[in-house]
Amino acid sequence: MNTNANTELAKDYIAKRKIPQLFEALITGLMVHKPEDHIDFIIESLTRHKDGNQQLKWDTFIGRKGGMNNTLVPLKTSTNTNVTSPPPSLHTELTRPPKLDAIPTGKREERPKIEDQPPQSPIPDQLPQSPIPNQQQQKVDDHQQQKVDDHQQQKVDDHQQQKVDDHQQQKLDDHQQQKVDDHQQQKLDDHQQQQVDDDEQQQVDDDQQQQVDDHQHIKTEEVDVKDLLKGKPIIFVGGGPGSGKGTQCEKMIEKYGFTHLSAGDLIRAATQDSTTEKGRYFNEAMSQGKLISTEDILGLLKDAIQERANEASGFLIDGFPRRVDQGIQFEQDVAPCDVLIYFDVPDEIMIERLTKRGETSGRIDDNQETIAKRLVTFHEQTTPILGHYGKQGKLITIDASREPDEIFADVSDALTGLMEQKQMNSDHNLSSEEKSAKSI
Length: 440
Description:
Rossmann fold, 3 domains, 5-stranded parallel sheet, rod-shaped, disordered C terminus
């Protein structure tokens, strides 16, 4: 394909610039004049032709007479002594030389060698009085050449137009293909998005169902725990450091069979169980000095109460609540508090007791300065709690500055009345079937 294109371009170039006619005119001039320096002849002829507006013909470089814009002066002839030329006649017309040998242009007939004919002297000012056949032939050649040029140009135009059409068609095809691809991609994206939406909706549904299940499970547990706690008092035990509440809890457990639950003991026990997620959580929180949230403490108390509800006759909750909101949350999530027993001791007695304990226990926090700071914090936390349960009629204050047995006597009187009241309430709430079963 490239070779054919190059050939066509070469032919087009030669034809448009009339290269064959140029060679024919130069060779004719050389053969007629036979100049000694043929190179100068060619250069001078081309220069004069380039500077003028004369139409290129086969006899352009032969000087002739007339008004044909041929201004070439007579050129020097050869010094060949074998050929004699008659003197030129001013009235002799310039005739076309006989046919020459074939010139490799592809467009002229073969002509006999010019050496066989006598040379004709050019007469610049003499021109033929009538059109010569070569002018008609030149018109034919020009017309044919124009047809060839037009045909070649048409082929070029058609080729370029075809390239434009192909390019536009390719752009159209690409655009249509892009639309198809975009449509398919959009369908795929929509499908994937729908799948994501379905998965998310399923997750939401699962979460909601899990919440419902958890809520129902919690409600079931709450019902079970509340059923198990019927007739079993929930007693909050309060008192400052050195108030002796630990000793009184031991006496209550011994007499009434209560289960003693200390929030601090539950937290410390949880931190030591590194085999469970809950244990690792509390261990990390304690090691980093973080405060244990109310929800976490309530979770520990609730689990402990549920585990021991069958065997316990009541619960002593020691060291809890530390704030009013903790007590309220406990009564909402676990069970109502029946009473808060507060062991009241003046600060100076608590300081004296703790100082003596420090002498034997070796605890670094049992010194007067540290104890005084602890008591300030204790009163700031406890005073609102005492007010809250006092307003509800659930506060029992015991003077704990006396001997342990004297203190416990007051505790026993308070608890005996509480236990009788709890039993009466429990019997009142029993259904007829439960009462019949109990009487049997």
